[in-house]
Amino acid sequence: MEGSDPRKTDFIREIIDEDIRADKHGGRVHTRFPPEPNGYLHIGHAKSICLNFGIAEEYGGKCNLRFDDTNPSREEEEYVESIKEDVKWLGFDWEDRLYFASDYFGRMYDLSVDLVRNGNAYVDDLTGEEIRQYRGNLTTPGRESPFRDRPVEENLDLLERMRKGEFKDGEKVLRARIDMAHPNMNMRDPVIYRILKASHHNTGDKWCIYPMYDWAHGLEDSIEDITHSLCTLEFENHRPLYDWFLDHLDVYHPQQIEFARLNLTFTVMSKRKLLQLVENKLVTGWNDPRMPTISGMRRRGYPASSIREFCSRIGVAKINSTISFELLEHCVREDLNRTSPRSMGVLDPLKVTIENLPDDHEDLMEVKNNPEDPGAGTRSVPFSNELFIERSDFLEDPPRKFFRLSPGKEVRLRNAYLVTCTDVVKEGGEVVELICRADLDSRGGDAPDGRKVKGTLHWVSAKHAVEAEVRLYGKLFTVEDPLGVEGDFTDHLDPGSLNVLNGCKVEPSVREKRVGASFQFERLGYFMIDPDTTDDRLVINRTITLRDSWAKIQKK
Prior knowledge:
Number of helices: 13
Number of domains: 3
Strand content: 15-25%
Structural class: alpha/beta
Largest sheet: 7 strands, mixed
Distance between the termini: 41 Å
CATH superfamily of the largest domain: HUPs
Shape: elongated
């Protein structure tokens, strides 16, 4: 048996295919997605979600959602709920397999007792700073703790007293007894348990000692009978430690496979750095549409299907690399072009009066909802003798090859009439209104005599327009690698990454769209209705422009 999609092939799927042929794990494929609930998920986590849940689907297996909640000082229920929402939104279902590392705290403690009893762990009185000093470095072996050779019975007694809360935070730790001269620093008697008298979001005040991540990680996979533990490359140097723990305990031993994490230009992918942006109010929150978080991308209007497609296109590799942000935008643009209904909106309005239509003229123009989708149908857009067009679509003294509106110039109003500018109204030197004359025989936008008109403008009827606040979002940073240039990464935030426009005019159908609905403003880009929208306030986010930078990059 192989994956259901023959187009997908990579080293992980090759390993799984070989395991199935060898009847390893009895032919089972069981993966897991194990986030720490200490922040919101970002696009890098989306890659892991798509890989773990996707492989389970391909091979008819299972995937668990498991929270690695071993550090109560940094974890919150808010993060747990946001992660569950993100996984569901991306289109994946853990069914009844929702687990927490904290579900296994009792089992982990019992296994630590076994490790002590077998002489493979000891209670240490060194402080955290002393442990770091004793550890050595890459060129100098570490030194053994003076408490390393405590008798087993003494260690068992001290560990139990640690569990009962008899000692202060940091007063003692439990360490594995491995090799202080090991070339892999992770193997130099790592800490297994620390005292931390903090309330846990899931277990409350039941525990005052908590397992370290490296102790818990492999055991969680073991307890859940995971067959293929897929991790990013930073865990490769930790795998010998996970193996050592599992080999020195009487437990099931899963197989860990590392793959390259996702790095993306013009952003940062560290939850610690993203938290810094949130806490310092450099963004509006974890779901700020400029953030690389899944919730931020959802609020910006990125479809879940486009993120899945992006993760599929970048594939799975063994070597870290950086992916162009333009490829992500390309996937979003492709998706929205196929699925988004069209609307008309004017972001910087300039009034146009059609002089040869009466003041009470009102009409309905039948317009296609999506030219890319014949099944999308049509809508009726109101038209009157007073319109709004984009201010940038008019120049009083235009350069050559300016195919928009200027005095004496004829253009097409999309799906309406051909119009010619006959007069310009100014106040204080500023253009405030254009007077135009329509060719009333050109209804629908085509000249009856077959003459060619190059310029086509979008518009909104002034009498029917709905006012909106439009938020134009761009890249959060001005440089491709904010962490790889001089200065603090926040020095490279783009002050122009958000531009809020008030007084924008949109066609009435936009007001009827639900919060979260995506659509294309013709000629302007793809937009969505923001959750800040209320009955008396319409707020619209620009998801992405129409220009495809990735396509241009590919042609070079």
